[in-house]
Specification:
With 163 residues, the chain is an alpha+beta fold. It has a single domain, classed as Pnp Oxidase, Chain A. 20% of the residues lie in helices and 42% in strands. It contains 3 helices and 8 strands. It is globular.
């Protein structure tokens, strides 16, 4: 799905800006759908590296089942969100910087790719990383989301390039 943004005044098309938002974010909202179209969205930790987002979690659960049944996902990362009130206090809007997109998810099973993904995840949070071994590699469930399309949106802050 690649639709024109309705409020083009809020649109950010600079890929570097979008990647910066994804690098700075701490929580991604991942949207999935059941085979019969029932939506499911959940907040998760993640790691971003270029054209891919990595998530990890428990080896079983609804998200695992939904991704296995339908690998198409949507996502959103929002930074600097806050309520903005008018001076009269009767009108409200939101300030934010965000990136939303679509992609395809696949489970990472290769040991080397899992260790690389874990390093990316830990880099997102400036945390330590210890490599998995062949013996314990199945203890961690990791999914790679290859980004097919993303768009940036900003509200209440100067757009990139504006002062």
């Amino acid at each position: 799905m690649n639709r024109q943004m309705r409020r083009t005044s809020k649109e950010v098309t600079d890929r570097g800006w979008m990647e910066d938002i994804l690098k700075k974010g701490q929580v991604i909202c991942l949207a999935l759908a059941s085979p019969d179209g029932v939506p499911y969205a959940l907040p998760m930790g993640y790691g971003f590296d270029g054209g891919a987002i990595y998530i990890h979690g428990a080896r079983s659960g609804l998200k695992n089942e939904l991704i296995a049944a339908n690998p198409r996902v949507a996502f959103n990362v929002t930074l600097d969100a806050e309520l903005a009130r008018s001076s009269a206090g009767s009108e409200f809007s939101m300030k934010y910087k965000s990136v939303s997109g679509f992609g395809t998810a696949r489970e990472v099973t290769d040991l080397a790719e899992k260790n690389s993904a874990l390093q990316i995840l830990m880099n997102q949070y400036d945390g330590p990383h210890t490599d998995l071994t062949e013996k314990n590699k199945d203890s961690v469930w990791i999914v790679r989301v290859d980004i097919a399309h993303m768009s940036g949106k900003i509200s209440g802050y100067p757009k990139p390039g504006e002062c």
